[in-house]
């Protein structure tokens, strides 16, 4: 049975490293995937910087819920990613040949099932605004209102961006099927 | 209200806004959608899949950063607490020792302080038994004649003149306490304290210099070579010995506060 988040964050605030480790294990994978989408090759460094900032500011974090912590964590990560992009404006372009598309033998042979890494790389090929929204909503699982607050847009605008992003992903998938065959 | 089940096996190929919202909220699985959207559903499902080993590889480093920050924060917290406490303790200690040196502590406190400081080689006057309180020393001006020969004690001081002559170990006068502390290079220093009708006088003599203090009434410090500092009701006098056998220079500063009448 997983411990309730308010207890975890409270213990971490008081310096319990085991509580912090649980929080890190829960949040680092989606953070890293989000940063691979928005910060490319700097994702690992930005993630480390983000956690360092979290550690330093944890005592001042007033939230208690998982949602509040997640929003705080990704706000920090987003700012650090912006810093990293300012240093190197080029976003990495992932070629279709780089995608390790794995086929699920149990699935419809017409449907290609990408692995997690390939799926994240595919999302990273979207325009930055669309990629970020899809990463925050699908990978991280944030509510549309939270995402709207994070990226500074209205919830309606975020829904529209999501819709366009998924249409584009759908097209990219079709393109990828054509390349890999 | 559209639910994921509504799309099972009956979903159109069109990716409209509502369907996109269902994808975005992970409400659709590949089994819930038509064949044409199954690839997109699989991609989104994979992107949100369980953690990969390399995504958890940095845990030890992250926890080490956490522990390091926590420990240094605790050390900083202790330092923040210790500094003011130490400052207050030093201040109180200084005031107590200073008051003890001038014999101004209440009787029992003076006795305790005398005993404690005596053990570490510092002499302060002991408490005066009740009924034997000393008369306060006259607060009148210290004769100016005490300034040129700075080593000369104030008239009210019962301290023997020998105790303040430079370069010699003073012999305590009758009624005085003394202690001898070994100094460096085999030399010795002597402290003397005396009580008498003129107040409390303390003298320290070490090879090459001596200090004579009389409270109230003033403070005389004699330095080797004829120089010295005198603090009294007349103000402050500083004498600097002349260089190369030349005449010494004396500077006098009048008292900052008007003398009590």
Task: Describe the protein in words.
The complex is a heterodimer of chains A (181) and B (261). The model of chain A is unreliable at 95-110 (pLDDT under 50). In chain A, 68% of the residues lie in helices and 2% in strands. Chain A is built from 8 helices and 2 strands. In chain A, strands 1-2 form a two-stranded antiparallel ribbon. In chain A, helix 2 packs across helix 4 (66-87), helix 2 (17-38) packs across helix 5 (116-124) and helix 3 crosses helix 4. With 261 residues, chain B is α+β, with helices and mostly antiparallel strands. Helices cover 30% and strands 20% of the residues of chain B. Chain B is built from 4 helices and 8 strands; from the N terminus they run H-H-H-H-E-E-E-E-E-E-E-E. An 8-stranded antiparallel beta sheet of chain B has the order 1-2-3-4-5-6-7-8, with no helix packed on it. Chain B starts with 16 loop residues before the first helix and ends in an 8-residue tail after the last strand. Mean pLDDT of chain B is 65; it is low at 1-10, 140-187, 193-200, 213-219 and 256-261. Chains A and B meet through helix 2, helix 3, strand 2, helix 5 and helix 6 of A and helix 1, helix 2 and helix 3 of B.
Question: Residue ranges of chain B: pLDDT <50 for 5 or more in a row?
Answer: 1-10, 140-187, 193-200, 213-219, 256-261
Query: What's the arrangement of strands in the largest beta sheet of chain A?
Result: 1-2
Helix percentage of chain A? 55-70%
* Termini gap of chain B: 100 Å
What overall geometry of chain B do the principal axes of the alpha carbons give?
A: rod-shaped
Number of helices of chain A: 8
Secondary-structure blueprint:
The complex is a heterodimer of chains A (181) and B (261).
Chain A: H1 5-13, H2 17-38, H3 43-57, H4 66-87, E1 101-102, E2 113-114, H5 116-124, H6 128-139, H7 144-151, H8 155-180
Antiparallel strand pairs in A: 1-2
Helix pairs in contact in A: 1-2, 2-3, 2-4, 2-5, 2-6, 3-4, 6-8, 7-8
Chain B: H1 17-24, H2 35-47, H3 59-101, H4 107-119, E1 177-182, E2 188-196, E3 199-206, E4 209-215, E5 218-222, E6 228-232, E7 235-240, E8 249-253
Antiparallel strand pairs in B: 1-2, 2-3, 3-4, 4-5, 5-6, 6-7, 7-8
């Amino acid at each position: 049975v997983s411990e309730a988040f308010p207890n975890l964050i409270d213990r971490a605030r008081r310096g319990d490293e085991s509580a912090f480790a649980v929080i890190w294990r829960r949040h680092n994978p989606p953070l890293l995937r989000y940063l691979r989408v928005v910060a490319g090759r700097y994702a690992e460094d930005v993630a480390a910087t983000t956690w360092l900032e979290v550690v330093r500011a944890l005592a001042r974090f007033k939230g208690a819920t998982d949602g509040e912590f997640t929003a705080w964590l990704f706000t920090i990560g987003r700012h650090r990613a912006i810093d990293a992009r300012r240093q190197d404006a080029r976003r990495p372009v992932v070629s279709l040949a780089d995608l390790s598309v794995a086929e699920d033998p149990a699935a419809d042979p017409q449907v290609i099932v990408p692995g997690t890494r390939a799926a994240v790389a595919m999302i990273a090929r979207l325009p930055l605004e669309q990629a970020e929204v899809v990463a925050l909503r699908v990978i991280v699982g944030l509510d549309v209102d939270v995402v709207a607050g994070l990226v500074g847009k209205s919830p309606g605008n975020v829904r529209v961006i999501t819709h366009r992003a998924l249409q584009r992903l759908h097209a990219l998938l079709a393109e990828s099927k054509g390349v890999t065959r | 209200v559209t639910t994921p089940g509504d799309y099972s096996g009956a979903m159109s190929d069109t990716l409209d806004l509502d369907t996109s919202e269902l994808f975005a909220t992970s409400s659709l699985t590949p089994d819930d959608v038509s064949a044409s959207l199954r690839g997109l559903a699989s991609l989104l499902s994979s992107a949100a899949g369980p953690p990969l080993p390399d995504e958890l590889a940095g845990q030890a480093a992250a926890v080490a950063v956490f522990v390091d920050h926590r420990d240094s924060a605790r050390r900083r917290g202790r330092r923040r607490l210790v500094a003011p406490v130490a400052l207050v303790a030093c201040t109180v200690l200084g005031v107590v020792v200073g008051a003890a040196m001038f014999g101004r502590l209440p009787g029992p406190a003076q006795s305790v302080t005398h005993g404690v400081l005596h053990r570490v080689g510092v002499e302060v006057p002991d408490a005066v038994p009740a009924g034997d309180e000393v008369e306060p020393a006259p607060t009148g001006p210290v004769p100016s004649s005490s300034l040129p020969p700075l080593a000369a004690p104030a008239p009210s001081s019962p301290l023997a003149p020998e105790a303040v002559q430079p370069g010699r170990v003073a012999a305590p006068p009758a009624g005085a306490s003394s202690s001898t502390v070994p100094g460096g290079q085999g030399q010795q220093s002597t402290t003397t304290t005396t009580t008498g009708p003129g107040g409390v006088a303390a003298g320290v003599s070490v090879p090459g210099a001596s200090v004579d203090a009389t409270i109230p009434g003033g403070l005389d410090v004699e330095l080797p070579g004829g120089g010295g500092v005198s603090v009294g009701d007349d103000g402050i006098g500083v004498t600097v010995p002349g260089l190369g056998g030349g005449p010494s220079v004396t500077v006098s500063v009048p008292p900052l506060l008007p003398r009590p009448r």
